[in-house]
Amino acid sequence: MEHLIAPSVLAADFANLQRDVEMINHSEADWFHIDVMDGLFVPNISFGMPVIKAIKKHAQKTMDVHLMIENPDRYIVDFKNVGADILTVHYEACTHLHRTLQAIKAEGMQAGVALNPHTPIAVLEDVIRDIDLVCLMSVNPGFGGQSFIENTYKKIIQLKDLIEKSGSTAKIEIDGGVNDKNAGKLLVAGADVLVAGSFVFKSDNPTETIAGLKSVSI
Ligand code: DX5
Ligand code: ZN
């Protein structure tokens, strides 16, 4: 499969959000990656429904919504209503993960599970066939602009192995500290989707930076 690029809107200029959404529309990016933080599961608060609705109004690509919130079951229907196509919850925030995944799919969305850097791949063994996307956090969630954690490569290889052995169709997404230095190695290890926030939006030409990530070949 050709790899996908998902720029993280967290790093966009919120005072020029429409401009940055249009930039992604016209770029080689595949998805919009949208980070929701509640100040409880992670120390930071990002944005909620009204902002996602505003993004959706202009976005012409898949809305990949990453929930860094406690007890996400409370809001599954709301995220569907504001335009999420893929809804990713954290393993660490879900007591009844299987039920949560079924509830996401019942709303017609694809179901994703994110793992913190310290959470082993093995916890997904009994649920991997119910997952459309596994988001491996390559930084501790909560903030953009952090350094990539090298242990991620090992986890990608382990996850790829679990997916192949179980017959799951889950995609592997890498989130945090992705740049032109680690993109190739991440794809070689087995990544399908690369999220990039700061690397895209802090660059001089975000459109070209996205094209560069998209053209990385292995
Ligand atoms: C981190 C978020 C990431 C973040 C990535 O908690 O989940 O999606 O926006 O930003 P960069 O690419 O700057 O690490
Ligand atoms: Zn994210």
Structure description:
This protein has 218 residues and is of the alpha/beta class. The protein is 33% helix and 20% strand. Strands 1-8-7-6-5-4-3-2 form an eight-stranded parallel β-sheet. The structure holds D-xylitol-5-phosphate and zinc ion (ZN). Zinc ion binds next to strand 2.
Give descriptors for this structure.
globular, single chain, 8-stranded parallel sheet, alpha/beta, binds D-xylitol-5-phosphate
Task: Give the beta-strand count.
Answer: 8
Strand content: 15-25%
Number of helices: 8
First-last Cα distance: 12 Å
Ligand names: D-xylitol-5-phosphate, zinc ion
> What order do the helices and strands follow?
EHEHEHEHEEHEHEHH
Please give the radius of gyration in angstroms. 16 Å
Shape: globular
Characterize this entry briefly.
33% of the residues lie in helices and 20% in strands.
Write the layout of secondary structure elements.
Elements: E1 4-7, H1 17-26, E2 31-37, H2 49-58, E3 62-68, H3 76-81, E4 86-90, H4 97-106, E5 110-115, E6 133-137, H5 152-166, E7 171-175, H6 183-189, E8 193-196, H7 198-201, H8 206-214
Bound molecules: D-xylitol-5-phosphate and zinc ion (ZN).
